[in-house]
Specification:
The chain is of the alpha+beta class and about 140 residues long. It has a single domain, classed as Roll (2,3-Dihydroxybiphenyl 1,2-Dioxygenase, domain 1). Strands 1, 2, 3, 4, 5, 6, 7, 8 and 9 form a 9-stranded mixed beta sheet that branches. Strand 7 and strand 8 form a beta hairpin. The longest helix has 11 residues.
Length: about 140
């Protein structure tokens, strides 16, 4: 059902510093910051040959990343994203198998412009899972 790994997301307390580390220390290609108000984040993508790293920083007072960073002030892995062919079918399958889809279960548009859903970490060994419809 799941396809390839799309990205691993890391919440960071300082987006500029994290971007510099990936660009200047590791020599990676780093995108410009992109703010996504609907998700309460500003993101930067680190392009790798086989996947991406998504650096997340809170945007707005209700950002879920703000709460994550309060518990983890140095940052840390926030979620892992897998591609799926059909996000609606994937969401329905998850619910049928007993997995909890976060929110109201309606896909939202993610940072890549594709529909996404998030799955409860308690159903996936403590890992928050994002499903993204492959483009």
């Amino acid at each position: 059902m799941i396809g390839k790994l799309n990205h691993v997301a890391i919440a960071v307390p300082d987006l500029d510093a994290a971007s510099r580390t990936y660009r200047d220390v590791l020599g990676a290609e780093v995108s410009a910051p992109q703010t996504i108000p609907a998700h309460g984040v500003t993101v930067v993508f680190v392009q790798l040959d086989n996947t991406k790293i998504e650096l997340l920083h809170p945007f707005g007072e209700t950002s879920p990343i703000k709460g994550f960073l309060e518990k983890n002030p140095n940052g840390g892995i926030h979620h892992i994203c897998y591609e799926v062919a059909d996000i609606v079918a994937a969401g329905q399958r998850m619910k049928a198998k007993g997995a909890r889809v976060l929110g109201d279960g309606t896909p939202k548009i993610g940072a890549h412009g594709n529909p996404v859903l998030f799955l409860h970490p308690k159903d996936f060994n403590g890992a928050l899972v994002e499903l993204e419809q492959a483009s």
